[in-house]
Amino acid sequence: MLPFVLLLLAIAFGPVIAQHHWQSHYHKLCVALAGIVCLYHLFVVWQPARVLQAALDYASFMFVVGSFFVVAGGIHLRVRSPSGALRNTLFLFSGAVLANLVGTIGASMLLVRPWIAMNRGRVAPMHIAFFIFLVSNIGGALLPVGPPLFLGFLKGVPFGWTLQNCWRPWMLAVALILLVFFVLDFVSLRRRRKTIHESEITRWRCEGAHNFLFLFALLAALIAVPAGWREPLMALIALGSYCATPRRIRDADNFSFAPLKEVGWLFLGIFGTMIPVLEFMESSAETLGLTSERAFYWASGLLSALLDNAPTYLAFLAAALGLYGFDINEPLHVARFSSVNGGELAALSLGATFFGALTYMGNAPNLLVKTIAEHAHVPAPSFVGYIWKFAIPILIPVFLLISILFFSR
Fold it and tell me: Which residues pair with 207 in a beta bridge?
């Protein structure tokens, strides 16, 4: 597991210590570390199935992320700016709800550019952090229309299970985080009001609205089409959207493939080096004391903050099923588990979706949002700054309260 640790440290401190060299060579490091782990599993411990599964998971991941990135980039929303604290708060709440309808990836790619535009002239790292908290992660915890919950749906968890069983902790988390944001944004606006000109105010407008049809087509493919057929179909939908969208709309969004390329290299390293980490977790649930709702909540959450939360969710779902003699590859077993052991399933579901907001690597849209903001010359928190200045002081108290109120067994 050493290459995985080295990659985490490099992503955290490389841009801070040697920004120029990091930008020029980070992809080489990702390929080298992932290659070491994959070669070890291929020729030393003879586990080619692990490498093949990681490759398939990475390919599926990039098809899903890339398709939503391309389609959402063809929708240009003009919003009123500058925006006040109340309007910003309502926008984030709407984004959190939308994340359940089009997935966290689709909602993030659709709304991040309007979010930057409506706060033009006063965008701070705080705005990027709270957007990732609510739209890219916590918002999408009610319906399995995106990672990680759609993986559980594919395995046999009923479609409306999380909505029925997790809406109360979702409402509490969203309400508390929005309250904190409103206070901080209100204070920030009062400090900078003199630098904002009323002449910047524009009207709401949507260009490229036909891409909403492509967006819902992607969503339907994600939910209803089996793996193997789903990925090429989503690529065709994205290609159709790209060809059907006038160039001027994408130019208005400053659309480029650079953010997607950067995320692709980073997650190549993550998916490659996390093979032994997931292998360890799948076989060590009881040894690690994962025998209670609260244990599953915190363990799945904290590991989701370090790994992509989709494979982490699957690893803990498999571990929870194994405790009761169920098989994750049997849909009837998964359905029975969800009806009898709802506490553990709710705990690991919320842990994976909520805690993915703790770091940039916790969920697919996080790094994309950061990279898009940086390409738009907007100040985004650094890897370490995001964790220490925003995630830990704001999210951990909220997650702790949810643990006490809802996962006592």
Answer: 76
